[in-house]
Amino acid sequence: MHEHDVLVIGGGGAGLRAAIAAHEEGADVAIVTKLHPVRSHTGAAEGGINAAIRDGDSWDLHAYDTMKGSDYLGDAPAIETLAQDSPGETVQLEHWGMPFSREDDGRVSQRPFGGLSFPRTTYAGAETGHHLLHTMYEQVVKRGIQVYDEWYVSRLAVTDEDDPSDRQCHGVVAYDIKTGQIEGFKARNGVILATGGLGQVYDHTTNAVANTGDGAAMAYRAGAPLEDMEFIQFHPTTLPSTGVLISEGVRGEGGILYNAEGERFMFEYGYANNAGELASRDVVSRAELTEINEGRGVDDEYVYLDMRHLGEERITDRLENILHLARDFEGVDGLEEPMPVKPGQHYAMGGVETNEHGQTCIDGLYAAGECACVSVHGSNRLGGNALPELIVFGARAGRHAAGTDLGEPEIATGKADEFETEDNLDTPVEPGAVADGGEDESAVADGGERTDGSRVSSDPRSDGGETAVASADDVVRRAVENERTRVEYLIEKDEGIQQAELREKLQKSMTQNVNVFRNEEGLKQALEDIREVREAYQDVYVDDPSRTFNTDLIHTIEMQNLIDLAEAITLGALARDEFRGAHWRQEHQERKDDEWLKHTMLAWDDGTPDLYYKPVILDGEEKTYEPKVRSY
To answer: Same structural domain for residues 113 and 202?
Structure first.
């Protein structure tokens, strides 16, 4: 058994920053990651880091823009923490050697981004995330922080008290991809989940193949609630053939969107009369799809993004990577012709419920980055706010897990008695039937039955709640035993269904039914499809019998996470009968502040989704944010 003070799960932006912060506080910290850190998906971030570092700008303007962008579903303490801490974290990156783009006078460059009242997006060409990863990984190496590279964490080691708020997380179980060994990792102080997004729930996404929502799903099954999962961001500019991202920096530099008729539709059709292409992402994505659906799209599939007028010198200086992407994936020369773009799944605003310190309701379990929901982004994230979230809340989680007192948090975690509960979800089947996957509700999507008829439990707690464990070591050992049993079953089973078939069905249904435009019929169809996939998953098996570099096994385990998160997204989307931010409902075309100024919460409840709500916090440090009509 490996043992450290703090375990960071994931080696992307949030994970690296958390590890550095914990180490600086004197903790023995280790990173456990299924990818080498510099291959993490943070490296695909192109746009930049929002930080109020110029004269004329201020953190409170950044906070207001973020709250407005969230459509007033963000929590003020989290938003103000982001805005206040981002300048210092950005300067720290510069001191560590981050190669930010600069103006002729030597100042760090900043560009306009959608939804911002000031050009505060700090960037490094169109490869900001790539440089961010390398800068922080260098600091990890410099400090001698242990990195368990290509270890896939598949289970949390959590105690089994009935109330999740009484549980403790003592570590994780991980599969060594290189050797096939399954081993336990004990955390003396805390486990920080920094596992990134869940884009593989969809089949057209900017996310990497590795983005399967592992941390969020594991925390959910361990008892930590998921928050606002229905809010999925669809980026307006992705390449049609692959989903590869075309940075918002193109529009920030002055790129223009045209429809098939050559019209600059953001203005000509009144989607955003003031901001145009620099409206927030949800507004631009809906505008593009409306153009396509009304017959003004190119080949009924996409629109054009044109940057030719910016000139070769400016493009190659600030957006050179975009030229390579357009040429390599679409055969388009961005200097000579416009690029085809369409909306694609990009980001999850929701995630594991945390407070400003990264704490979940489970003692010793933290989350930071895209897998977490503080909530900074509410129902819609502004471009340029993802990277500061990684470094701000990654650092805070690392410090707190290492034992530093950050004060009393203003955001509460866990279910309180006064919270509103959804007793009767309007779904095509009862929620339990959607989620149970068999007779034993603690074994949802677990790989099926053993030959003796018993279940191979995926429950992260000791043994399904039957007995209390004596020590932290026992909790970790029991989790290792359970995971070894599950993996042996999956590999030794020689018939059934392959995960790839189920993944394709799930992704197609989510892309068709839980996309930018949503309606009740489609959401109910998605839940039916998810139920069928979940039931079929009980008969899943791994065709590859090898013990090393078994990607079939990894994808099969990941599939469980995709099922659970797809269901969480869809249940929240069906329950929220209003139009707010990225969540558009055909039957409900207005924002309903009287009814829906609240967070959608989903608890595992032994495999039956428990939907409830908690209030949004609009009271900030010096002001209360009053919901207003959101226009650009």
So the answer is: yes
